[in-house]
From TrEMBL:
SMART domains according to UniProt: CYCc
GO biological process, one term: receptor guanylyl cyclase signaling pathway
Lineage: Eukaryota, Metazoa, Ecdysozoa, Nematoda, Chromadorea
Keywords per UniProt: Glycoprotein, Lyase, Membrane, Nucleotide-binding, Receptor, Transmembrane, Transmembrane helix
GO cellular component terms listed in the entry, alphabetical order: plasma membrane
Protein name: Adenylate/guanylate cyclase catalytic domain protein
Similarity comment: Belongs to the adenylyl cyclase class-4/guanylyl cyclase family.
Length: 219
């Protein structure tokens, strides 16, 4: 549960009371997924799979600590987090998630897993901005969950994305472009079945792409 609300929520849950869901007018939701994780896992023992995910998520969790972002959950190789709730932060949530996404890409670009030294871990990242409802579900093992089309669209941004890219919905793109236009460069991917989506990059991402290209060219 979010630290800001954990004590109050925990007290209510101990008393068997329900915790009312809360609506948020504007948040930015982030989904990531390890590309071809099933194939990677097939090359590892079960213990190695646990070690791989643990190493990845320890890195991700450490990055999150530097941002106004709340980690909702990680299931398998999927990772879900959000900015703008439970603590509202105006429109800064778009920049927080943009910076987080770029930092995640930097991290995996350098990440190596000893049992699979030749394998390069890649992420797909999907981002969407919009309204959201958050609430605690369950009593014995309560979970802070997100609900609404904003969450569903962020998930589709990820699942329909390309490896190594940060995919923004039009709503996320428009907010980033209007508030932080000088900090990022976006490129339209064009029309897809979902809606128009955009790629996000800045100087760091450009350096990462060039570095990766040079490494491939030298092999």
């Amino acid at each position: 549960l979010p630290k800001t609300d954990s004590r109050q929520v925990a007290d209510r849950l101990k008393l068997g009371q329900t915790v009312e869901p809360e609506g948020f007018d504007s948040v930015t939701v982030f989904f990531s997924d390890v590309v071809k994780f099933t194939q990677l896992a097939a090359k590892c023992s079960a213990f190695q799979v646990v070690s791989l995910l643990n190493d990845l998520y320890n890195g991700f969790d450490s990055i999150i600590e530097d941002h106004c972002v709340y980690k909702v959950e990680s299931i398998g190789d999927g990772y879900l987090c959000v900015s703008g709730l439970p603590t509202r932060n105006g429109f800064a949530h778009a920049k927080e998630i943009a910076e987080l996404s770029l930092s995640f890409m930097e991290f995996v670009n350098k990440f190596r897993f000893a049992p699979l030294p030749r394998e390069r871990i890649q992420l797909r990242i999907g981002v969407n901005t919009g309204p959201c409802v958050a609430g605690v579900v369950g009593l014995s093992m309560p979970r802070y969950c997100l609900f609404g089309d904003t969450v569903n669209t962020a998930s589709r941004m990820e699942s329909n994305g390309k490896a190594g890219y940060i995919h923004l919905s039009k709503d996320a793109h428009d907010l980033v472009a209007s508030k932080y236009n000088q900090d990022y460069e976006t490129r339209s991917r064009g029309e897809v079945i979902i809606k128009v989506i955009y790629y996000l990059k800045n100087e760091r991402m450009l350096i990462l792409h060039l570095t990766s290209y040079n490494k491939v060219g030298n092999n």
